[in-house]
Amino acid sequence: MSSEEALSSTLSHWLSFNSWWLLLPFVMLLVMAAFIVAFVLLLYMISPLISPKPLKLNGAHVVVTGGSSGIGKCIAMECYKHGAFITLVARDEHKLVQAKKEVEKCAINDKQVVLCISVDVSKDYSQVESVIKQAQEKLGPVDMLVNCAGTAISRKFEEVEVDCFKRLMEVNYLGSVYPTRAVITTMKERRMGRIMFVSSQAGQIGLFGYTAYSPSKFALRGLAEALQMEMKPYNIYVTVAYPPDTDTPGFAEENKTKPLETRLISETSGVCQPEQVAKIVVKDALQGNFTSSFGPDGYMLSALTCGMSPVTSITEGLQQNSSEQAEGDCGEEHKTP
User: Fold this and answer.
1) Residue 309 falls in the annotated catalytic set
2) pLDDT per residue over 217-228, tens digit each?
3) Catalytic one among 73, 95, 217, 258?
């Protein structure tokens, strides 16, 4: 073999050997992609074995507090479209009558019933317990409770009257505690049920102008996390919904006193329609998901603030894990050498 042929042969072998090294990153990438796809498929296959059994609304009794307008009314309408029997709870009798007419238009059969109860769910527990008992005597045990009664005040801290802090805790927090306390015993006896707390994105992070509102919505999450730990052995699942600004009468009233800074923050995420919110929260509650968030912003916010929230599905588990990893990375970046 001549020296030129030997050199050519050596060069070809060298190029062949190095070409494999050049291809190695792409091969590894393909292997990783295949592994991820296989892992996701495996999770999808075993998810029904881990997640709660979905609740069927056809013939179920759903109680909605704050059901005379806004998100509460739309949730009632969404449940009625699935064949549920509805109890609407609110203070204003006139608004309740109007809401009942709108909900009844969503009926899918002639057996469905809409019951209206006028009561302030934040004032007297014995009264709340009494009206819930009446509702169960007429429409049967409560299968799903939606705690949607609430109010908002948006002002700078020193501009909020002291009594408003107390009032918001009563309406937004105790207004959910009392109805939940009234239905929980029966749910435990039946070993089934769903409980929804409608919080807010301002219940995930404190925001300028919400020094009275945010704490009352944060409190719902603490209640929900502790309650889910107690109720899971009884096949009762809790959902906390974190809707963004939503086009409701309450939101319009809130805007009348909203500081400019709060308004500018709110404008970054836009305004949702109550019908959209209702579809998502009802779906999540029926599935037994602990967290119900809205849109890319809401999902990211839930991932970043999930902490040690209960996990009732594969998705929530992955979300919590990714959040912990992200927080760990941030911690490493801020360590001093």
Assistant:
1) no
2) 999 999 999 999
3) 217
